TrEMBL record:
Name of the featured protein: Fumarate reductase/succinate dehydrogenase flavoprotein subunit
Organism annotation: Amycolatopsis orientalis (Nocardia orientalis)
Catalytic residues in the record: 322
Ranges for domain FAD-dependent oxidoreductase 2 FAD-binding: 10-429
Keyword tags: Coiled coil, FAD, Flavoprotein, Oxidoreductase
Cofactor(s) required, per the database record: FAD
Tagged with keyword Coiled coil: yes
GO molecular function, one term: steroid dehydrogenase activity, acting on the CH-CH group of donors
Pfam families with a match to the protein in the record: FAD_binding_2, Succ_DH_flav_C
Coiled-coil ranges from the UniProt annotation: 500-527
């Protein structure tokens, strides 16, 4: 029998980024005991890295802003493939979630008259991003950690134990979810430092594990983003949607190679920075797609006036949604007009005084100075696309954040639907707050209504332990595989063959490679002991990366159109017949004991509710919808 530390909680939240922490607060506020587990240090999550800000239509910088405008922008950004109910809840609730953070102790930057300041970002009609310089995510996490400490102090007063209702398990990785008759019964994992196993017996699990970027070679994501939550959910029987949509942020650092991919916030363009090619031309004016024609400035003069007068001028095309800008940069580089290291130039130096740049963008100034020896107040940055965010994720009910597996909830980047085919910048931090809260609430309500708690079976615990330990005990047929080599090969294939521009023949090659890696992973071998062993940790994560990569590739092959974060060179147009179709990934145990088989099925979206449909002009919807779908629009000819 496996030696395991066993603990009991009402709710286990896996992930301590923004979504996880907001879920913890909510479940605890409803009176339940909550374990929060994170594989890195507490406080070190992607949310901390968020620079630009948190989108919420508070209307502080422009009083014309409201939830309807935010909803419209989000649906446009996602090319109308979004789960519209999620987009509606998000747009309506984001302002309350931001104000609520201030009641927890956050302090956002201010307008001159003392309200929360809001900045411009791509795809947002009005300045909408509440921010703290370019360190917004840090403030968000700091504040929620502070709130958690205050709740722990309340619990101490009542029980004499700070950890009576919230306990943090840092540097602890969950490798498997356990079920009892199809319902969640617990989560199994290991302490990274000691390698010892830990079992959380709990009827409700909230997944808040973030994204999948580490499956790609060039990425803004850090080591934790190995798609664990996506894979855990699949193995527990839940489904993933929209996995073909991966966001390549247009502006990652391209030089030096050691920092390639690190993010340059969109806030640089929001604050006046412009993209230029080697001919010193502001090329984005050439790349406004038909669906956005008329909404963006068509001259540099108008674009520049827009920064100070948004009523009379249209916004700069430098702030088109990310998918459009990333493709434009790709085209410029391909056409030979790229910068010396294979990107384009992002110039803020000639646009703002040095002091202002340092004040508004302190992290960017520091990042370039330290890592690339570039002074962004004096010279342009070299930037290019980097894998940044996955729109696809666990399929959830919008109101409760529950997956199809009873007791399993998901929020934040590991959930899917909210952003459709492409996320707008700033809409992730607000998503974490809105749906983190809803997931905590969903889990609490589920537990409250349970008549009888599911049980963990010992055989499941033994199986989870055996799977985790397999890399120490390879088949012994003389062939040993190194987890680092497999990871490098996976990242290269995903980058080259299922990256920013895709075609059938290349995706098929990627799937062949993934098939090969699925076989080779059976022989992954690690040296040494279970005590802090990074090779072993990677071997365990690799299984998840292979599963999510296969979801991305299979869905990308199935969707024969281009939309948002999925560009098919062989199917360049957006096809209205695909607009309401979701690709759903599920896993079935095949003949490979390590990596289950992935299947993709097509599902039809629930039609947009009539009152929401009517928020859009018929002429705009006509660019995305079929005539049949629009027959009920009041503007439609009878
Ligand atoms: P995270 O914050 O990444 O947290 C994931 C948590 O899960 C971590 O605690 C991790 O340790 C844990 N975890 C993962 N797997 C396991 C496991 N197996 N077991 C236990 N724990 C696990 N969005 C915006 O809206 N505005 C911005 O300005 C912005 N800027 C960004 C800048 C950068 C550089 C990056 C990378 C992203 C940015 N984003 C921004 C996107 C946004 O930050 C992320 O989408 C968001 O923070 C994800 O939050 P999350 O709570 O879902 O996950």
């Amino acid at each position: 029998m496996t030696e395991v530390e066993r603990l009991n909680y009402d709710v286990v939240v896996i992930g301590a980024g923004g979504a996880g922490l907001r879920a913890v607060i909510e479940a605890r506020e409803r009176g339940f005991s909550v374990a929060v587990v994170c594989k890195s240090l507490f406080g070190k999550a992607h949310t901390v890295m968020a620079e630009g800000g948190c989108a919420a239509s508070m209307g502080n910088a422009n009083s014309n802003d409201n939830w309807q405008v935010h909803f419209r922008d989000t649906m446009r950004g996602g090319k109308f493939l979004n789960n519209w109910r999620m987009a509606e809840l998000h747009a309506k609730e984001a302002p309350d979630r931001v104000w609520e953070l201030e009641t927890y102790g956050a302090l956002f930057d201010r307008t001159k008259d003392g309200r929360i300041s809001q900045r411009n970002f791509g795809g947002h009609t009005y300045p909408r991003l509440a921010h703290v310089g370019d360190r917004t995510g840090l403030e968000l996490i700091r504040t929620m950690q502070q709130k958690i400490v205050s709740l722990q102090q309340e619990d101490f007063k009542e029980t004499g134990d700070y950890e009576a209702r919230i306990k943090v398990f840092a540097e602890c990785t969950i490798t498997e979810l356990l079920t009892d008759d199809g319902r969640i019964s617990g989560a199994f994992g290991y302490w990274r430092e000691s390698g010892r196993f830990i079992l959380f017996e709990s009827p409700a699990v909230v997944l808040a594990t973030g994204g999948i970027g580490k499956s790609f070679k060039v990425t803004s994501n850090s080591w934790e983003y190995t798609g664990d939550g996506h894979a855990l959910a699949l193995r527990a029987g839940a489904t993933l949607i929209n996995m073909e949509f991966v966001q390549f942020h247009p502006t990652g650092m391209v030089w030096p190679p050691s920092v390639k991919g690190i993010l340059v916030t969109e806030g640089v363009r929001g604050d006046g920075g412009v993209l230029k090619n080697t001919e010193d031309k502001r090329f984005m004016f050439e790349y406004v797609p038909d669906v956005f024609k008329g909404q963006y400035a068509d001259s540099e003069e108008e674009a520049d006036r827009w920064y100070t007068d948004q009523e009379k001028n249209r916004r700069t095309p430098d702030l088109l949604p990310r998918d459009e800008v990333a493709r434009a940069i790709n085209s410029e580089v391909k056409a030979g007009r790229g910068s010396p290291h294979g990107g384009v130039f992002l110039d803020i130096a000639s646009r703002l005084p040095a002091e202002e740049i340092r004040k508004r963008l302190p992290s960017m100034y520091h990042q370039f100075k330290e890592l690339a020896d570039v002074d962004i107040t004096k010279e342009p940055m070299e930037v290019g696309p980097t894998c940044h965010y996955v729109m696809g994720g666990i399929e959830v009910d919008p109101d409760t954040a529950s997956s199809s597996v009873p007791g399993l909830f998901a929020a934040g980047e590991c959930s899917g639907g909210m952003h459709g085919s492409n996320r707008l910048g700033g809409n992730s931090l607000s998503d974490l707050l809105v749906f983190g809260r809803r997931a905590g609430l969903g889990a609490a309500s589920y537990v409250a209504e349970l008549k009888e708690r599911p049980k963990v079976s010992q055989s499941d615990v033994d199986a989870a332990a055996a799977m985790a330990l397999a890399p120490f005990d390879p088949p012994g047929d003389g062939v040993e595989e190194n987890p680092y080599s497999l990871h490098t090969e996976l990242q290269q294939s995903m980058n080259d063959l299922v990256g920013i521009i895709r075609k059938a023949e290349e995706i098929e090659r990627a799937l062949e490679k993934l098939g090969e890696l699925r076989e080779r992973i059976k022989r992954v071998t690690v040296e040494g002991h279970r005590q802090f062993n990074p090779g072993w940790h990677l071997a365990v994560d690799l299984r998840n990366m292979l599963m999510v990569s296969e979801c991305v590739a299979r869905a990308a092959l199935t969707r024969t159109e281009s939309r948002g974060g999925h560009t098919r060179d062989d199917h360049p147009g957006m096809d209205p017949q695909w607009r309401n179709k979701l690709l759903v990934c599920s896993a079935t145990p095949g003949d490979n004991p390590v990596v289950p088989d992935i299947g993709v099925t097509v599902k039809t979206q629930i039609p947009l509710r009539q009152d929401l449909l009517e928020l859009f002009e018929l002429s705009e919807l006509g660019k995305y919808y079929t005539d049949e779908e629009l027959a009920s629009h009041p503007g439609s000819p009878a």
